[in-house]
Every structure is written in C-alpha cells, then in structure tokens.
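pinging the channel bc i need a second pair of eyes. not urgent but kinda urgent?? the chain im working w is below, pasted from the shared doc
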Amino acid sequence: MCSAGGPHQVLSAKTTKLFDRLISERWVMSVILLNTLVMTLGGFYPAGSREYFIVHTIDYLCVLYYIGEAGWKIHRLGWKGYRSFGWNRFDFLVTLLCLPVLLEPLTNGVHYLTWLPVFRAGRLFRLLRLLRFIPDSLGLAQGIVRALKASVGVFLALALVNLIFALSAHFIFGTIAPERFGDPAKAVYSIFQIFTLEGWNEFPELIEQKIIDGDLNGGWIHITRVFFGAAVLVGGILGFSMANAVFIDEMTLDNNRALEQKVDVLTREVRDLHRLLERLTAEDIATATPTSSEEPPTT
C-alpha cells in the first residue's frame, strides 16, 4: 500500500530532477550561445519588424531563464550555499546587471526615458558568463586579479604623471589649442591619448601649425617638440612598457612558481645524492685503510 503523499513525493522528485537537468552546464551553455546569437542578429533588423520582435522575444526569454536558474539554485542550495561558489556569485551579478532589459516591453512609446538604451547595453554582460567555460578559467581569473593588485602602484604613478603633463599642457598650450588643452579634463584625455602612442604626432603638428598661423615666436615650436617628446618618452615608452611588464610578469607567475618548485626539488635531490656519495666514499676509504689492530703480513 502506498503511503500518504506518495504520489506527490514522486511528482516532486521528478520535478526536481527535471529542473536540475534544465540548469545543467550543457543547458546553460546552450542558452548563453543562443542569447549571443539573437543579440547579434538583433542589430540587423529594424525596430518594429517581425524579425526584430522574434529576436527580442527570445532575448527576453533568455533573461527569464537566467533568473529562473539563479532562483532554483538558491532554492536548492540555500543562499549561503549558493554564495559559497565563486561562479554563482559572478552569475548572480551578471543577472542583476541585465535585469533592466525586462523593462523594455513596459516602456514602448515612452519617449522621455532617454536613459533606457544605456541600460539595454547591460544585456551584453551576459556574454561574460561564457568565461566560465574557458579552460582553466579560474586560474586565468586569479592571474588577472593578482596582476591588477601588483599593477596598482604603476597605474597610480602613470595617473600622477598624466595629471602633471596635462596641467602643464593646459597652462602652456591652453590658449593656442583650446580644443585639445582648453581645460584640465580635455588636457588629461589628450595626454592619455599621447601616452598610448595613438596619433601622438598629430598634437605637436596641430600646435605648430597654429603657432605659424598666429605668427607667434618661433621658440614655441621648439618648446612644443621638447614637451611632447618628453611626454611620449616618459608616459608612452617607459610608463606603459613598465605597466605591461609588471602585468605580464604577474600573469605568468603560476608558471614561474611551478618551475621554481621543480628546481627546488631537483636541488634537494642533488644535495641528497651528494651527501650519499660523500658517505659512500668515506666508507670505502675506511674499508680500504688497515686498522692498527691488524698485524702486518709475515714473510
């Protein structure tokens, strides 16, 4: 005889098994890839078209799937158990960032919500979930975090150097090229562009042309060349090269540690072999040398 509530327990077990299967890694990966595809296709169709509606409906359903996935995992593991896994915390944060897309069906025709397209871009954060399927993604993430921590000092130094050059450029060239150095904010952005070595030569050429057109003292041209040459050397060549070196060194620290451990093991083995050889050599010498108690052979 079946016990009371038996059919309900069987149904609950089947439902639980079904939901667990729906949030398995294979299903999550498939939904993320589908979501990536529909977000890409959405940019090819004009708003209001049938294809646009289909694509955005699928996108909307993917968001609901992510919410359901997080909710079911929290239900099964509990909040503390859910938070104990690093990837779960990451997935939950990404899901929160893409929640504004749910407001889109409620805002059709509301023209004053000019900020909504910015929040729609939050859906792109869902693509970050693909990182969890990259081989050795945990080691990669740890390497990035370690490299960022090690590079904080270099980044702060570069920011300080950028500010110094930016304020100097504002005071020196602010009236000559106000579109580039008219205020500190423009100057900081322009100097940062120079540090990246992206079109840095356009800045001195622009100022030199304005000096010539304005019939200013020719000495300004030499000041311009010296200033921007120093900016490229200090910030672009030395500064960014140092930052890249520190970042790459920390990223490859795991490999270096593995090699250092192997070298330490080999060093200990060589040291043990050396001690063993010394002991064997001493024993051989002791065996070959006659003791004082032994009588010399008679003739």
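so The chain has two domains: 14-133, 141-251. and The mean pLDDT is 79. — does that match what u expected or am i reading it wrong
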